[in-house]
What we know:
The chain has 267 residues and is of the alpha/beta class.
Amino acid sequence: MRLQVLVATMRQTDLKLVEQMNLRCDAVIANQADRDEVVEQDTPHGRVKMITTPTRGVGLNRNVALLAADAELLLMGDDDVTYRDDMPQMVTEAFATNPQADVLIFGMEMVKDGAVFETRTEPARRLHTWNAMKFGTYRVAIRREALERANVTFHQAFGGGCPFSAGEDSLFLKACFDRGLRVYAHPYVLGRCCKDSSSWFVGYNEKYFYDKGVLVRHLFPRTAYLMALYFGACFRRETSVGLWKRLRLVYAGVRGGKRLIPYQEKR
């Protein structure tokens, strides 16, 4: 089986990411910049294609990479990840030894200021909607045949560069479950992810809570108001937004989520 890493990135001018990320297999790099361009290059470890488009939004960017993918196995990637040398062999082996799995979610070391502060990994087990919403896309690998059969893509209204600041990874996994794909955790650690900065997170402000309400509406439409209590009631230590205002913002997001109405700051 052949593996491709699908990288979502921005403002790249060359293929330096191949070395920075330690990409030792085929890759498709979806690059959002100020031009239309396709660059292909053979490396000692595989073929890399970088598709540059003057678009915005991480969901759209990931879909560009998906459309160009042609390998049996696809690993979603971010430009702040550095993979281990043996990653391609280990991911391929993981799918070979788990033929029942359509999707595998791997581990990752989280790095800040040059030091590992957390290793996110799970024991081998089957995952379901209620225990898989915490995983980021950069840990997800999937069989392309299963993805195409289920017709799963990324929502283009959620995530960095989109009207709603995050949640495209949770919506992607939810779509996998809803369409019958079998999702498993695997303990192998892919590499390291640098968390020194974020392209979308600017704090637990009013927009954050409104956007969470919109996301909950799309993740759990039947129980959205009940699930919204979690985001409204939590984060009191991380935010200056008061409890009742948090609840009002989340519930406003649930209501606005039906028609995807973006947050509008009151002046």
